[in-house]
Fold this sequence. Notes:
By secondary structure, this protein is an alpha+beta fold.
Amino acid sequence: MKLTTEAKVGLLVFAGILLLTFMSFRVGEFRMASRSGKSVHVLFDSAAGLTEDASVQIAGVEVGRVEKIGLLDGRADVTVRIDTDIPRDSQARIRSVGLLGDKYVELDLGHAPQSVKDGETLMAPATTEDVGQLVGKLSAIADDLKSVTSSLRGALGGAEGERSIRELLQSFHDVTLNLNNAIQKSDARIARVIENMDNLSTSLNRTIIENLASFQETLIHTRSATRSMDSIFRKVDEGQGTLGRLVNEGNLSDNLEEVLVSAQDVLGVKKKYNTYVSLRGENLVEANDTKGYVSLKLQPRKDKFFLFELVSPEGTKGDRSETLTTRRITNTGPGAGTDFFPTEVTQTVQERETSDDMLFTAMFGKTFGQTSFRLGLEESTGGIGVDHTLLGRRLGLHLDLWDMEGENSFGSRAHAKFRADYNFLKYFHVNAGYDNFLNAKDSSLFYGASISFQDEDIKDLFGFLPMR
């Protein structure tokens, strides 16, 4: 059968109504049946701005909707239906999309092993975000700023405020002017300071150049000493002498080891001495002289040691002797025999001599933490010493006092010496200090270098040094 024009129009309108109804249900998420999931109650202090059918989210993902908003004991009772399990200690907060956007409920998941059951209640935090409260706080801040600006306007406005500002600017101008004048007056002083620093660097450079030969001579003496020690070790390695036979002959060393083991068993003590050997050279600037040291340190325990040294005396110091020589002079020239020009004249001459004998040091030391105290003979006379280490034992400070009567110094006071040494490589040190500073006429600054090693480092050391 054939449809009339009116029937066709009616069918088209009916289809449009059906399509519009379907699209409305899709956009509004209308459901004919009840929504699945758990119904959970959340109590808020305020649910302002939250509407029914608002979104419920976890980490920005929608998991449910708000079904109902009511009042329970003066608090907002919000019923939400969620499609997932959440821990019982989870919390809910009301948040908004942007500053003035729609409100939604956000769930912060807890860590409880049990999940929330259908119909249970979640407690919201004591404080929740509220845009109205935020706007109120901003309004209060604006009011405070307005009060401050009003106070500033009252203080700085008018003729009196203008005069105060003018006086403040004038005071600032005066301060900057005085500061500029002070800097200009100090230009000459600054120039003199720079000139003095330049002169000091020039003098220091000249001193280093003048004493370069002495320092090279010290290094030559040190190399000569190492060559001598190398010769000694070579003889020992070849089996020459008692020590050489002891090292190279197996039977003798085995017998000695058995004797030592027996002695240790009898005494019940096993001792091990740490041995340290040091070669040091010092160049005395004012005295224009050098000194050399060969040191042996035996350390049976960490807090006890014995120090032995051979010291080469300075050319103008050391043990001195004085003699008086009487000479008779006969005058035979013109005028001899008068009161002003007698024939026989007796002349007394005082002669002073120094010895070149090696000096020696033998001291006992006790260590307390980073500080050590020494007592014994120092440079062939009684003396004491104090040592202190810093920077992980890389920097050492040493103070020595000996020759208490001042017999070997050009003065009457004891010989006092301060020395600082710094370990910049495994075996090598640089040192500097002030020698005999209690006797002004005999004092001198000095600098130098040293090499020190333990007994087990000897082979590595001689393999490292460039000896010819």
